[in-house]
Amino acid sequence: MARELLNVRIDSELKNQLQALAKRENRTLSNLVETVLANYAKRESMAKRK
């Protein structure tokens, strides 16, 4: 799968929280955000099927 760059603006406190979560899970911030977004997209896709 091709990788693409996505720039977003978020609140600095949210970024700090996400960085702390990523560090705790021993992953990059980008990986954490991608995983969260993928899980959200999957959940919403499944909900629309019902």
User: Over the alpha carbons, how many angstroms does the gyration radius reach?
Assistant: 13 Å
Number of strands: 0
Provide a count of the helices: 2
Instruction: Name the structural class.
Output: mainly alpha
Indicate the percent of residues in helices.
55-70%
List keywords for this structure.
mainly alpha, 68% helix, single chain, 50 residues
Structure description:
The protein is mostly helical and 50 residues long. The chain has 2 helices and no strands. The chain has helices at 12-24, 29-49. Helix 1 packs across helix 2 (29-49). The longest helix has 21 residues, at 29-49. The mean pLDDT is 95.
Brief digest:
The protein contains two helices and no strands. With 50 residues, it is mainly α. The model has no long low-confidence stretch (mean pLDDT 95).
Topology:
Blueprint: H1 12-24, H2 29-49
